[in-house]
């Protein structure tokens, strides 16, 4: 009753419209009740008429109420769905992983039901939903030269710069790995050096246990693993310089496979004119844009740019060929 009086005060016409069913329901009830009084006015037909009219009014009111209830339920369902699937609610769902997989599955199950399970099994190989970081504006520059003292060997001076974006300011892993071949078990010319590593412009000394260099990995390989903890920020500007040396007879390619999501990727390679360098994309969604080659003295500069996302296990590959051997 307080709500009724409050509504009546605020909007009389709206209240009359919303509560019009109530007097009709009372009227229907009264007519049905009167129909049970024997021989009203001495005519049985009057009782039957009152009963018929009363039940008609009552059932009509009930039906309209149900219809209104259905309309309310539809509105409620729409609001409920908006709550369930809004971003704020999704972030708090414990089944977000399952929901994401099921949503992705429903999109392709209609068209490729025979591949449904296989696609589902491989979704997370490319989209690391458990990852807590990604790389922004990754730039990789490499200067390649022939090793004047050792035939068939090349020297790569590599520089990387990017922003590591973290979803938390708590401890997060930075990981970088590389493996390349030596000519044989006894060969000691191939080499690796980490010459510079900076985080937010601050140079950091790199040594074990964070930096592990194994020059006899599986007998004739050099393996490098650089793993360290970063904390205190959501963004870390990383700069790194490395020196690698290896033989073209056993290692004539240079590949980079993404371990995380990359947003924007630039590759610039400077090499002698006598060294052919071919560039390939590895499974990227879009194509790299290649700038016109530039020449400086006896060197060639190639530049490739990628705008957008590169996912886990996508990347780049370069293939080298010594043109002096022709």
What can be said about this structure in brief?
This protein has 326 residues and is of the alpha+beta class. Helix content is 32%, strand content 40%.
Characterise the protein shown here.
Helix content is 32%, strand content 40%. With 326 residues, the chain is of the alpha+beta class. The chain folds into 3 domains: 2-89; 93-126; 133-325, Sandwich (Immunoglobulin-like), CATH 2.60.40. Strands 1, 2, 4, 5, 8, 10, 12, 13 and 14 form a 9-stranded mixed sheet that branches. Helix 1 (2-10) crosses helix 2, helix 3 (21-35) runs antiparallel to helix 4 (44-85) and helix 6 crosses helix 7 (116-126). The chain starts with a helix and ends with a strand.
* SSE run: HHHHHHHEEEEEEEEEEEEEEE
Mean pLDDT reading: 81
- What structural class do helix, strand and pairing data support? alpha+beta
Q: Could you estimate the helical fraction of the residues in percent? A: 25-40%
């Amino acid at each position: 009753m307080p709500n009724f009086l409050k509504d009546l005060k605020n909007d009389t016409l709206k209240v009359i419209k919303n509560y019009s069913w109530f007097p009709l329901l009372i009227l229907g009830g009264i007519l049905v009740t009167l129909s049970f009084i024997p021989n009203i006015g001495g005519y049985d037909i009057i009782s039957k008429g009152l009963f018929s009219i009363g039940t008609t009014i009552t059932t009509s009111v009930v039906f309209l109420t149900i219809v209104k209830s259905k309309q309310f339920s539809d509105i409620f369902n729409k609001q409920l769905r908006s709550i369930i699937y809004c971003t704020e609610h999704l972030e708090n769902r414990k089944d977000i992983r399952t929901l994401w997989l099921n949503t992705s599955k429903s999109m392709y199950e209609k068209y490729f039901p025979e591949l449904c399970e296989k696609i589902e099994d491989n979704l997370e190989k490319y989209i690391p939903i458990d990852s807590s970081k990604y790389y922004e504006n990754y730039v990789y520059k490499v200067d390649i030269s022939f090793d004047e003292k050792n035939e068939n060997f090349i020297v790569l001076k590599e520089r990387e710069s990017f922003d590591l974006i973290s979803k938390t300011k708590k401890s997060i892993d930075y990981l970088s790995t590389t493996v390349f071949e030596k000519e044989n078990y006894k060969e000691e010319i191939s080499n690796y050096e980490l010459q510079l590593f900076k985080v937010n412009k601050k140079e950091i000394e790199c040594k074990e246990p964070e930096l592990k260099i194994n020059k006899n990995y599986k007998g004739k390989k050099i393996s490098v693993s650089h793993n360290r903890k970063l904390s205190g920020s959501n963004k870390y500007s990383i700069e790194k310089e490395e020196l690698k040396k290896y033989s073209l007879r056993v290692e004539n390619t240079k590949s980079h496979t993404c371990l995380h999501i990359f947003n924007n990727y630039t590759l610039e390679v400077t090499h002698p004119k006598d060294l052919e360098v071919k560039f390939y994309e590895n499974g990227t969604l879009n194509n790299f844009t290649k700038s016109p080659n530039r020449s400086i003295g006896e060197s060639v500069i190639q530049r490739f740019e990628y705008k957008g996302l590169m996912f886990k296990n996508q990347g780049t590959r370069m293939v080298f060929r010594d043109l002096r051997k022709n």
